[in-house]
Design brief:
Strand content: under 5%
Number of strands: 0
Radius of gyration: 16 Å
Distance between the termini: 30 Å
Oligomer: single chain
Low-confidence stretches: 2-11, 179-183
Helix content: 55-70%
Order of helices and strands: HHHHHHHH
Structural class: mainly alpha
Shape: globular
Largest sheet: none
Length: 183
């Protein structure tokens, strides 16, 4: 997405983006990420898992041409709305929220770009990129980060096979993940 080239707002369907974002959030909240993969169940840990899923879906939408880009922009807008809501829930005041949302948007854009570059370089680089972006805690096992990178790679492949219409309907088929799964 190029923020300097706004998408045509009349072509966006916020309802489709809301359904798709809801599916992403539901998947990111699955206990398997926090119990079996040991991602800390904290704001940072949840953001890591959400960003992995958001990246995979945006990556797929980019490949779908103009209609995919329109849905990707609407999905990005939905993400911004959600981040604003989260900031309010954790206690930020009305005056601080716009600045925080802009900061989160910039950080998210950088993170998604780093994932894009790392995805092309392979799972080890992807795991290292995620670990660098989210120094969650010293005890976070590198093997778990590698499994998360493997899951992301499988998710990107699975999403390539799903239709844009299914994604817009929020009917996303994410691959399974298990703690014992090896890359």
């Amino acid at each position: 997405m190029n923020p300097l080239r706004p998408r045509k707002s009349w072509r966006r369907n916020p309802a489709d983006a809301a359904k798709l974002y809801g599916a992403i959030v539901a998947q990111a909240r699955l206990a398997v990420f926090y119990r079996e993969l040991a991602v800390p169940d904290t704001l940072d840990g949840r953001f890591l898992v959400l960003s992995v899923h958001l990246f995979a879906v945006l990556h797929r939408l980019k490949a779908a041409g103009e209609a995919g880009l329109d849905l990707a922009q609407a999905l990005t807008d939905q993400f911004s709305i959600d981040m604003e809501t989260v900031l309010r829930e954790v206690g930020f005041g009305d005056l601080a929220i716009p600045k925080r949302v802009r900061g989160l948007a910039a950080a998210s854009a950088g993170l998604l770009q780093a994932y894009e570059e790392a995805l092309e370089a392979g799972e080890e680089r992807l795991a290292a990129t995620m670990a660098k972006a989210f120094p969650l805690r010293a005890a976070f096992p590198q093997a778990a980060m590698r499994r998360l990178a493997h899951y992301l790679t499988r998710m990107v492949q699975a999403l390539e096979e799903q239709s844009l219409a299914a994604l817009a309907a929020g009917d996303v088929q994410f691959p399974g993940i298990h703690s014992g799964e090896e890359p």
